[in-house]
Amino acid sequence: MPDRERDLERELRDLGPRVEYPRTPDLAGSVRRRIEREDEARANRRGLFWLPVLSPRWAVAAMFVIVLVIPVLSPAVRDKLSGIFVMGGDAGYGGGGAAQSAGKAEDARAGQAGAGGGKMASEPAGQAQSQEDPGQASTPESTGSGVLSSGPTFHSPDQMVATADLICTGTVTKVLPGKVDAAGTPDAVRDTNVVIGVDEVLKGDASTESVTVKTPQLAYDGPQNTEWRRTGERVLLFLSHSREKETKRKYIVAGTSYGQTAYILQNADLVATASDPLSRRVAHQSLPELRREIQEAKAKIRRGEVEPLQPER
Amino acid sequence: MRTGGTAVTPEDVKLAERARNGDVAAYERLVREYESLAFRAAFVITGDAQEAEDAVQEAFVKAYRSMKRFRPGSPFRPWLMTIVANEARNRRRAAGRRASLALRVAEGTVAGDHASPEAAAMDSERRSELLRALEGLREEDRQAIACRYFLGLSEAETAAALGCAKGTVKSRTSRALGRLRERMAGEDAG
Hints:
heterodimer; A: alpha+beta; CATH 2.40.50.120; seven-stranded antiparallel beta sheet; B: mainly alpha; Rna Polymerase Sigma Factor, Chain: A; two-stranded antiparallel ribbon; about 70% helix; elongated
């Protein structure tokens, strides 16, 4: 290496300690506090799970094995075990996924009926929710527009930001039929997969260019022509990763089964797809104002002042 | 012990092992040891102090959550710097802008090193010239120089920080030095 190159490198190395950087913040303390808060929150959540000694992942696996094994055991053992594992009284051990699907279909039907007005609630879902997490999830309630809510309901934009894995604006590029739940039954309901070309990521993986959002067919049909699942519609969505194995690459609209976290964009204005007070409050802002609110919420989340809502199980 | 150009200190190995087993206090000590370097690296990438702070805090939390994947006995610093750099690059992309790194020489840092005030002033002037020349380089060249010479990162760490291959770091640094020399020669001639 020529001497002059070495000289330049030496000069640069000498310069390094003299370069002025912004003061390094006290990160060690804040990182520790955040880790401890998160650990505490996790421990609390785990405590709510009915198999507290196992991590949720292993507990789900254990439940799956039990559901597979019970039907092949003797009727006497079946009766005994079903008595232990059945929660809520009248759900059968053979229910499994079918019961869940039927429940979803029931939610969707109730949503359709709810659109006609009046408060309707899917009782089994509501009971399960309140058993799992009475502190976080609210009971089913009307959104005020006649559209049914059967999931945890947000009470502040901060909670919405904390719960969403991805918040983005974009344009609906495709609306596709998804899988059929409870196929072959009168309760059969087809999901709709909505493909969004992402314009801007406000929270989450900034490199996201396109997302597919799995939505129940009958959800979001508000009475005010606020359906967002139309090709060409510009939208702002708060999304969560789908927890179902077969759709794990897809997203669902965060938190609730109605439009509290789905907005239509008209230039820089937001149009709510539900008419509960929080949706109205969010939509009252312009997009730049909401951007600022999301940034502020993210700062609160980092400081541990806001916790996400429990996902629907 | 050195691995991949980065020293592995026994203290780091012990702290990392304790952190792997869930000792938050041990992890806090690791954070304290590397927070300044991590923050400066994030600042070089994002060009914004607030973004850098957010990125580093997030990266430290992610690193703690990933400690089970950290190979015991391997150097902690490059592993951490990769996470920090990823987070910083994601934030720069999210902000939708190119980083604009503006560096300057801190005042009053050179006076004690020189026999006379004149010599100190000459050195100070030379350093300011060097920084000015550096500012004239392309962003990627500037970042390579800052990582390698100002932050003292190894080639592997710089590659992780800039999201490119080690060979690219080598060629980019060499090209940046060449351009810097040309600019300095131009200033001297002018």
